[in-house]
Amino acid sequence: MRRPEQVSALLQHAPINEVWGVGRRLFEQLGGMGVATAAQLAEQDPKALRRMFSVTLEKTLRELRGEVCYVLEDGPAPKKMIACSRSFSERVTELAALREAVASYAARAAEKQRAQGEYACALQVFIQTGQFNERERRYANVATVPLLTPSSDTRDLVATALAGLDRIFRPSFRYLKAGVVLMDLVAPGLAQTDMFAPAPRPGGERLMAVMDRINAEFGCGTVRPARVPPAPGWRMKQELKSPAYVSRWDEIPSTNCL
After folding, report:
1. What's the pLDDT at 68?
2. Is pLDDT of 166 > 90?
3. Residue 173 domain-assigned?
4. Please, which pLDDT band fits residue 238 given cuts at 50, 70 and 90?
5. How distant, in Å, are the alpha carbons of 11, 31, 121 from that of 41?
6. Whose CA is closest to 163, among 257, 116, 87, 227?
7. Which helix (H) or strand (E) holds 103?
8. pLDDT digit string (tens) for 219-236?
9. What is the extent of the structural domain holding 118?
10. For residue 129, what are the β-bridge partners?
């Protein structure tokens, strides 16, 4: 609808309560001023409406006049960091179990990063014990590891995360949580790399693309690094999790009508 006469006719027949941002209270206040349609709202003085109500209503008025005040976005802005972390179902004391968890989180973060189409220039890994049990010793630490070559390859990111974990792990603690954060994300070809850094793995992008397609079709974790177990004992318990009504078709409530 681009012709001015069409827009004018629509505004004249549109009740004021159908305009975005006009709720019940505004509807009553504007009605007391004799404003009943969108066309009548568009004829008001913008500065006066701003003083009497809000800048939001002023912008709505200007939008009705054809002025752009709210820019429509094609999609969400790319994330600057991508994180994956979970609390364990039970305390973890062994380095081997922590390495499994960190490898799992790094692999999942790598999948998210590839879906965004970017590369990580650095990686952060953290571990921590419970912070509220006074009878347990507390410990928390984080390691930030730069990547010599920006990467979205799961193998590179898992290896980097495990190297960071080895630096901060301390025995004799009961760990409750771990996580991986991919940092300094850049688009392909925009990262300034070290000319002496090792070259990316040959065929790595194609391999990751195939792995992502398989996991998308047959389920997350169908193809995974060997360090990632299929059903780890430390995995967060979710037996009492609420159904995902808005994101999973198979969990939408259904009823049979006779």
Report:
1. 82
2. yes
3. yes
4. low
5. 9, 10, 52
6. 227
7. helix 95-116
8. 888 888 888 888 777 776
9. 82-188+201-218
10. 175
For residue 125, the cross-strand partners are 143, 180
Q: Tell me the Cα Rg of the chain.
A: 27
How many degrees, rounded to 5, is the angle at CA 62 between CA 57 and CA 66? 145
**Per-residue pLDDT tens for 6-34?**
778 888 888 888 887 788 888 888 888 88
Given a contact cutoff of 8 angstroms between Cβ atoms, the answer to whether 202 and 128 are in contact is no
3-state secondary structure at position 126 = strand
CATH code of the domain in which 137 resides:
3.30.1490.100
CA distances from 194 to 81, 146, 183 (A): 22, 12, 17
Q: Please report where in the chains the tokens 């960091």 appear, as a residue.
A: 81
Is 15 part of any domain?
A: yes
Length reported for the chain = 258
pTM of model > 0.70: no
Beta bridge partners of 128: 140, 177
Residue 165 in contact with residue 85, Cβ under 8 Å?
Answer: no
Q: How far apart are CA 21 and CA 43, in angstroms?
A: 17
Token pair belonging to 33: 């001023």
Which candidate, 4, 2, 24, 6, places its Cα nearest to that of 15?
Answer: 24
Distance CA 25, CA 145 (A): 54
- DSSP H/E element including 89: strand 82-92
The two structure tokens encoding residue 66? 């054809």
211 in a domain, yes or no?
A: yes
In angstroms, the CA 244 to CA 59 distance is 36
Average pLDDT on 127-148 reads: 90
Q: How many domains does the chain have?
A: 2
Task: Report the SS3 class of residue 213.
Answer: helix
pLDDT digits (tens, 9 = 90+) for 193-214: 666 777 778 888 899 999 999 9
